[in-house]
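Researcher: Let's continue the batch. This sequence belongs to RapZ C-terminal domain-containing protein, and it's 126 residues. Same format as the previous ones, please.
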Amino acid sequence: MAAVEIVSFGFLHAPAPEADIVLDLRRAFRDPHVDPRMRELTGRDRLVRRTVLRTRGVRRLLRATVRQVQAYAEGPGAGQIDLGSGCAGGRHRSVVVADKLARRLRRRGHTITVIHRDLHRPVVQR
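Model: Same format as before. Here are the structure tokens for RapZ C-terminal domain-containing protein:
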């Protein structure tokens, strides 16, 4: 199995990291930031996790991304696979998706590293 590095990030802080696969979660999926109860929370908080994972299409995206990583891992030049998971501020959707992908890929035998690039940054005011 391949080594996979997953980086969650916020597009509003810096450009997306160099990666084989980049998920842009900004427009297609509900943003917990718009709910004042969740604004200061992160993707590590239960309410945010539940909200993101119950958003229509997210679980299908997770399944498709796992299949995509598996396809990359089967390639002849597969070494490390770099995957970026990005949302606006890098604190909510990107973190939930990165953590969930990490769990699913570990269960399939991949060695996983997760970096939450912007999780520590203040909430973006928008």
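Researcher: Any comment?
Model: The CA atoms of residues 70 and 106 lie 12 Å apart.
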